[in-house]
Request: fold
Amino acid sequence: MFEITENCGSARIGLLRTKHGMVETPTIFPVHNLGADAGWNTPKYWDVFPEVNTGMFNASYLYMDKRNRLNEILSQGIHRYIGFTGVAFVDSGGFIYKKYGLSASQQQILEIQEKVGADIASTLDHPINLDKDNLKNLSISKSVLNAKTALHIRKDKDMLLFASIHGYDPLIIRNVIRHLNRHGEFDGFAIGSLMRHFYSYRKIIDLVVATKRETKNKPLHVYGLSGILVMPLLIYLGVDSTDSSVFVIAAGKRDYIVPGFRRVSIHRLKEVKEVCKCPICSSHPIKQIVTDRKYLSLHNLWVLWFELQQIKCAIREKELENYLEERFTRTPWAKSAFEYAKRRFKFGLVGG
Reply:
């Protein structure tokens, strides 16, 4: 199901086999909020970039059925309904589930994931908010119980099932994974609630490193962290995939992602000296790109995907550290985070 083909430190390249084909990791799963009010705003990037053969969908949005399309989607499946040709990761949507106070059970969410033809599904999770959640341990326990339930009631054995895990302490993360491993064989793991620590890179690194120690050779997905600077750092730590909505969010804010780790407002494009050679910028006038959210989203996605390919090349050439040293030089916080991550590995502090 998952074969590691290249290693460079903790970073690795792997092949993940699914019902709808092979995925080479590390990779990103572009978010398509099918079922949400604005879910149809995501361009059909797979028609423009066939090599981007992954997509992230949200079972909680589908359950909410804002446009009364759920029955149609369930009968046709995601791939046929939107003409998607790649590998569909259908997340349980724990953040949306909690935000809107949904009442669906793990069984109902799993049924949606199976019926829409998910290649990869994640168990129903309960994200934690350290600032407000006085019952964070209860939330973690609920996520663990749902994971064990989903593993027991899963009907589609060809659908990969990732256990969703949350934690605010490395030791808790490790104990949760050990507990789940004693109760069954998950195809991979997905860690969430890291966005809460977005401005505390040391916390993110500590939690991811602790997770990696327990998941070992199982695929590891990180929810929600996929920025042009964060993604390479996660890959360095050994993460195999992330889901990305930044390409659409940036376009909504009228931000243009420049190859080389930065974003600029479309009003400042004249300051950009680098000439983008992506398929969008090469075939459309810049005025059309900056005024059409679709083209801006596609450009931003291409930049993320291109950076991903550069990272894979560095892994294959065993030059990832040197590559990231150069890439992070101009951004103080990213450089500091990278130095901290290197110290964790150098001194063997990988237990959390």
The chain has a mean pLDDT of 89. The longest helix spans residues 293-316. The two ends are 28 Å apart (CA to CA). The chain has 16 helices and 13 strands.
